[in-house]
Amino acid sequence: MQGTISVRNLVKTFVSKDETVTALDNVSLTTPPNRILTLLGPSGCGKTTLLRCIAGLESPDSGEILIGEEPVWSKTKDISLPPERRGLGMVFQSYAIWPHMTVFGNVAYPLQMRKVPKPEIEKQVKKILSLVQLDGYENRPATNLSGGQQQRVALARALVGEPKVILFDEPLSNLDAKLRESTRKELRHFLTELAISAIYVTHDQVEALTISDDIAVMRKGVIVERGTPQDIYLRSDDPFVVDFIGRANFLEAKIKSYQSEELCVVTSSLGDVVCNAPAGLEAGTSVTIYTRPESFTVVPADSGLTENVFEAKVNSVLFAGEAHEVEFGIGNATVLAKIEFDIPLQRGDRVRLHIEPEWCRVLNPKRGASRA
Ligand code: ADP
Ligand code: MG
Description:
Layout: E1 5-15, E2 20-30, E3 36-40, H1 47-55, E4 62-67, E5 70-74, E6 79-80, E7 88-91, H2 103-113, H3 118-131, H4 147-160, E8 165-169, H5 177-194, E9 197-202, H6 205-211, E10 214-219, E11 222-227, H7 229-234, H8 239-244, E12 249-258, E13 263-268, E14 271-276, E15 286-291, E16 296-299, E17 309-320, E18 323-330, E19 333-339, E20 350-355, E21 360-362
Parallel strand pairs: 3-9, 3-10, 7-8, 8-9
Antiparallel strand pairs: 1-2, 1-4, 4-5, 5-6, 10-11, 12-13, 12-15, 13-14, 15-21, 16-20, 17-18, 17-20, 18-19
Helix pairs in contact: 2-3, 2-4, 3-4
The structure holds adenosine-5'-diphosphate and magnesium ion.
């Protein structure tokens, strides 16, 4: 089980003169091998602390951390391996490359520290630089590179020691939007190609959705949800997760009846809506339902669809790059929907909107009291 990190019941508090902050509140987590797991959550929720505990840069209060089968930190077993013996690679926000060294010097450094023979160092550095598409840059001073290239040097340095797992803490946040997007794609490509396990920390929802195989959403020192990007974006029933990740239309509703274990009919300002729902909510229970803007489709009058088809009026149309963002009025409610360009819509138009029950969900009233 190389490449798997298990965190069990990890607690970390920071105590200062006037306050105690619980940065990690009983966190348990196992990373999938050879995949990218992202820790996603708002600033201050404990992502960096968790990463630093795994790396050995921070000492937890209690719990256990294993890499593969080997405990690297355990309170009860009194184990605490220093960072250099955990076999992890790290890439941080500030590239932390050494400005006075060449690209070669930066990437070779971890191998020189381990007293790897010189010809072997040259071979490995060459291989890694070619992988991150920096062939021929060996003798450049590291500072003489663009932000994206510097980040690739940092990645090469983290990879050269053949780490079991590589840890990233907001590695792209110093790059501008366009470069961030292309570097993110590159990074996903490299990591997938190498089949290396990675833990990736970000507060950026889009970044998390596009780079990850798996996402753990954190809030106030707790992991509140774990799943694939699709699960997290489209299938969560946690009020905090749904609100934090992307945009959603929230509507107040009341449970009417269940069609099956998971599908129920609710009454709302849209009329009756068939939604996914947590099992066992009683008829009459007040709930909140949500839909994502991407989930609506415009359907013709003779579509034959009987459920979840709404008469809608176009209130406004906004050009938004890859699609139109359209605000529709449906009865007393308004919903935001992303509609393909090839459907010409103008303010005042009347259309039929459809949403699959699969993409319409009842938030679980038992989870997270507030959406904030
Ligand atoms: P994130 O990376 O998700 O933004 P952090 O892990 O950096 O969050 O911080 C989690 C909480 O722990 C925050 O409330 C932060 O202020 C606190 N914290 C982190 N490091 C320290 C420290 N060295 N001393 C005191 N408080 C800290
Ligand atoms: Mg952080």
